[in-house]
Design goal:
Cytochrome p450-Terp, domain 2, 3 strands, binds alpha-fluoro-amidocarboxymethyldethia coenzyme a complex
């Protein structure tokens, strides 16, 4: 058993016992009152999930196992002191609940590089059978499903595995799946945008650095950006669409490939992960319609108001939980101001940040007028030469695997049962309205 799995076994055994005891002792305690309005507007604020990997505070933003993003950037192991933390370290933190040392992070890098070599040939054939014009998220998700032929979990289940062992093949499958996503992503990217000229992985590189390398963006600067990107998008507690969908499908004991694929189908929606691509289209149209890369504050305001008048959303702004500027936006802006302060797209993003919150607030209905992670991520990638917008949501998905798949392992450690909430009819809700 590898060292990460061994540590997981130790912490997992004790936590799963604690959970059983909690339910035994306090299972009947009432948690909260739920209103008709909450249920009928996306269940916002309804506590319905157990997720240990991260927690989102409406004002402060995300904390991973209690650590804020600035804390992570200071504490997680890096390749160089002035570099960005390695996502491998965040994976370990989310999985085990402890900040790893550099040797452990190096072990995970090597383990993932080794496992990445095991992608079966048919996966690339399946991708190649799709039209080159198919959106990269279609190709990505198809590849994820095609990889499920290798599922340890399915094999072990068919062989009659004991319930208490579910977490073990789940861990193996998750490690395989995470290790392989950069290879799949770079394959799709090079296939769609660089004339099929594929680049072999460099097993000496870390997981995110290798992704940048295989995409053909192998400068140290691009690798540093990729590490930051992979850390920032990794998790956002359990209720967001990609995390919730992965978890839900996993409760049917679907293997990690099926479960993650469900999450990625959700990420592909324009109100979730595809917002990063939508932002770039919105910016492109703004530049085209106004006729300059340096529009005035008033021109941006008019453009934003027109978007709202057309009954559309301003992508990259708003959030279901956050009520302040997303720290994932601020961290990227700080990074950009440090390394590429003169990049025109970054200057445009900064100017939009001065204007759009007021425009959204003036509608009187938008609960959070502030930018989210997607308001800047595409502009940053583009400024570093990764200019092909359709790959942005795939990159989001590669990062998101770290959090949602870690939670999937924990779901099996905790022995989470099938999720099956009740639904009611319109008439039933109407009756409740009259009664209360
Ligand atoms: N532009 C225009 N209208 C917006 C808006 C925006 N950016 N954000 C919210 N609204 C509207 C929303 O459509 C709703 O209108 P109706 O009452 O007419 O239906 C109203 O304001 C109240 O919505 P809310 O309660 O403030 O937001 P929700 O919790 O329902 O939705 C978001 C949250 C993220 C879906 C929403 O803010 C949005 O559509 N934003 C733009 C898309 C986006 O950037 N998504 C990415 C979110 C990101 F963090 C991620 O998942 N990657």
């Amino acid at each position: 058993m590898d060292q990460v799995k061994q540590r997981l076994k130790e912490v997992g055994e004790s936590k799963s016992e604690q959970l059983k005891e909690l339910v035994r002792e306090h299972g009947n305690k009432v948690l909260q009152e739920v209103t008709i309005g909450q249920v009928l507007s996306g269940m916002k604020g309804v506590v319905a999930l157990l997720t240990d990997t991260s927690k989102l505070d409406p004002s402060e933003g995300i904390r991973f196992r209690g650590y804020s993003i600035p804390e992570l950037r200071a504490k997680l192991p890096k390749i160089k002191e002035d570099g960005e933390p390695l996502p491998e370290g965040l994976f370990y933190l989310m999985l085990i609940g402890e900040i790893p040392d550099k040797a452990t992070v190096d072990f995970i890098s090597q383990e993932w590089a080794r496992r990445a070599q095991g992608i079966p040939d048919h996966v690339f054939k399946v991708i190649d059978s799709l039209p080159i014009t198919a959106h990269p998220m279609i190709q990505f998700n198809t590849a994820i499903l095609a990889m499920s032929t290798e599922s340890h979990f399915r094999r072990a289940y068919m062989a009659g595995m004991d319930k208490k062992d579910y977490w073990d093949p789940m861990y193996e499958g998750v490690m395989d799946l995470i290790s392989r996503l950069p290879v799949i992503t770079a394959y799709i990217y090079r296939r769609c945008f660089h004339g099929q000229k594929h680049i072999k992985p460099d097993p000496s590189l870390d997981w995110a650095g290798n992704l940048a390398h295989m995409m053909g963006h192998s400068s140290e600067e691009a690798k540093r950006l990729m590490r930051l990107y992979m850390v920032l998008h990794a998790d956002h507690e359990g209720g967001n669409v990609s995390a919730h969908a992965t978890h839900l499908v996993g409760t049917a004991l679907s293997n990690p490939y099926y479960s993650f694929s469900a999450g990625m189908n959700g990420l592909a929606g324009p109100l979730h992960g595809m917002a990063n691509q939508e932002v770039m289209h919105w910016l492109e149209k703004l530049i085209k319609e106004i006729g300059t890369e340096t529009p005035s504050v008033d021109q941006i305001k008019d453009y934003a108001i027109t978007t709202l008048e057309q009954g559309r959303v301003i992508p990259g702004y708003g959030h279901a939980v956050l009520r302040k500027t997303d720290p994932r936006f601020s961290e990227q802006l700080d990074f950009a101001k440090k390394y590429i302060p003169d990049a025109p797209l970054i200057q445009l993003v900064s100017k939009i940040y001065e204007v759009v919150p007021d425009v959204l607030a003036s509608t009187g209905k938008v609960k959070n007028p502030w930018p989210n992670v997607d308001a800047i991520s595409g502009s940053l990638l583009s400024s570093y030469g990764i200019k092909e917008f359709p790959i942005y949501t795939v990159l989001f998905g590669v990062s998101r695997s770290l959090g949602v798949l870690t939670s999937l392992i924990w779901d099996r450690i905790y022995g989470m049962p099938l999720e099956r909430p009740s639904s009611q009819t319109f008439d039933w809700f109407g009756e409740q309205g009259k009664n209360k």
